[in-house]
């Protein structure tokens, strides 16, 4: 009996030990291959050369074609488009804020960018005094003085917060609600201090909100140097006036697509593991970190299986979502598809936090599934994944019903230097950091694909 | 009796629990203060504005003055200089490699840099055919053909290796031994492919070796693009000839200094914890990551105690070592001092892996001390330290006898993009990444200073 128990223990140990050892070798192979060949980096160069890819724009259509052709060329088993109706907003070619008084500052331009969704101004612009507030509390106090003015929400992102996404989440309330609050108090327009960790003069855009019951007023962001310049000027000239001109506008919704490519599983083809990022981007910059990185990592994470000659046991599906930035259209469309699909989605992984060096994965799952995934940490450490924690998977996969929704979490210290701005270009991405992300995601796909959930 | 045991357990638990909780709050305060005020980043701007700081150069003397004055201004209890004799090498103002045949490539310059310690060429230069080898094995095979030629060691750093320091360590053998091996076989000079992770045309310098028994021949590094250009050209023109001109030279040794500043411990002033980096740098670039970052982080890690109003229980000593790059002179001098000092060095921390986002600490210590330090991980995680592992502390602290030698280990993926080259400038450093290093080191100093080792 003892011998049998011993034999069982030994056997179990070997059985248990087998997978991680193999998986570690696979992880190392993914890492070496990705770092040496830098395919995702080359694809990112191609994708970003299209330029900004606002949903519904000509560039976004080019990106759809690029992604479809790329996965076809790479020999994915199936590549197809899922139609998505997207709202369309266009920046236009007039975007200007100029000081018109006092006399000695007259003509001084401010570095601004319309927020995504903003209405334009009349052709002659909006001319008004600027009133600065440091937060919503101060805004409420000053509400009686706001009427007829342009409200300057000069609310800095908290640079002392180590978690940049948390600091972003706190500051973004002003970008989202500034125009609504301003309009309620009778303001003519709002200026929002850019939400960024980099001290330069580049304005950072992003989505804003309107309340259908309140008048819509234009909203722009301002670069940090000019935000400080304006704040100082207002101390000296409290009646400082500017003219703001924008011809951005909402267009009728148009048809676009999620781009989907997959490699079928050899053992359980009906079990699907999704990996994705979003193909659209803001129009400033090239959408390199946000989310060109996630797009090319998703493609490469699956393609790496072909490159090193492994067929996954379960189906790996790349979903490149259209319009994360301006309403999550693609996420909703794919989520609806999942709810009526006969196939079983077991997990979804999202990469939408930039192409920086790997740190961890956040997992939304029931405890036993979370523990299973966490037990793979020693393998994932081969790709510089230091931790696996509970947390959200990401906006684009949030509508997918699956046992685990997983977010890839690269280092977050530099992300908001680039986010939603002209800084977010190909050159801002380091090839090794980007490629380690591909390898980390590929390794996680491999583990889920072998072991199920 | 049971009650007593219970009481002891509870009391021990409170006593044990007390420190980590306090320490976590301190860690968070260090992080917030460092990220918000970015003092190390400002100091780095000052230090790097001096330029490259090769030991014994005028710039290195400026850096010594800057560091001494900085710590005096910051109100350290004691700031002083430790004299160090440093060997001196000077790049000179002639550094040129030009193709002279074949005719159609005549006049094409190659992007090169003398390796540190290289002898110069005669004034008219060295003109010879170039012979390429891919490794020492191929060099041995080709040794009979080498006489009278310039050997081109075209050995790429292994881009597939995830640990960039390991890949560097493998490639650096050619930089170190290339000229010795070449000279033995009768070569006139050697060209070494730059050791870098970035594909550009910037040559990366660094120390090389000579054997006093063998003739000294000049050695240069070449940028990656020109390395590939030269390699391709040699396939077509195996008799390709270049002229190499260098007027670099060895000068008599000169006097320089380690710069030392300390805050005395309130409880155990005779117990010293050293933290340091090296003040010298290579002359190309500004020595921003290597090792301006370590210098300003060391100063800030100690100064943060003053800024948040804590007096350490043990003495914290910043040691800014002179001449890490060209012979470890300062490390040797300080190590000798320690061996005869009456004070007790309990630990030393080195930061000399660039100003990138924190990942971990490597610790050289006996097991119980290592375990003690490792038990502090939950506190250090507040500063984005993900791991504490056994490993070396670093070259500059390697001569210090202490219970623990600790290396700060930031992310290593971008370090060799900049290392020893004109790319290593202030702009290559991200302020948040740099500052988190200061906070992580300050937190470790706090823990050692409170708890001893």
Descriptive overview:
The structure is a homodimer of 453-residue chains. Chain A has helices at 2-37, 39-49, 58-73, 136-146, 164-184, 224-236, 288-307, 329-340, 367-374, 377-380, 415-418, 431-451; strands at 78-90, 95-101, 109-110, 112-114, 126-133, 150-153, 189-193, 219-222, 241-246, 249-263, 268-278, 314-321, 344-350, 358-365, 387-390, 404-410. The longest helix of chain A is centred in the N-terminal third of the chain and has 36 residues, at 2-37. Chain A has 453 residues and is an alpha/beta fold. Chain A has two domains: 27-86 and 253-451, Aminopeptidase (3-Layer(aba) Sandwich), CATH 3.40.630; 94-250, Glucose Oxidase, domain 1. Mean pLDDT of chain A is 95; it is low at 1-18. Chain A is built from twelve helices and 16 strands. In chain A, the strands form two sheets. An eight-stranded mixed sheet of chain A has the order 1-10-12-11-13-16-14-15, with helices on both faces. In chain A, strands 3-2-9-5-6-7-8-4 form an eight-stranded mixed sheet. The A-B interface holds A 31-33, 35-36, 38, 159-162, 164, 197, 357, 359, 382-384, 386-387, 411, 413-414, 417, 430, 432-433, 436 and B 31-33, 35-36, 38, 159-162, 164, 197, 357, 359, 382-384, 386-387, 411, 413-414, 417, 430, 432-433, 436.
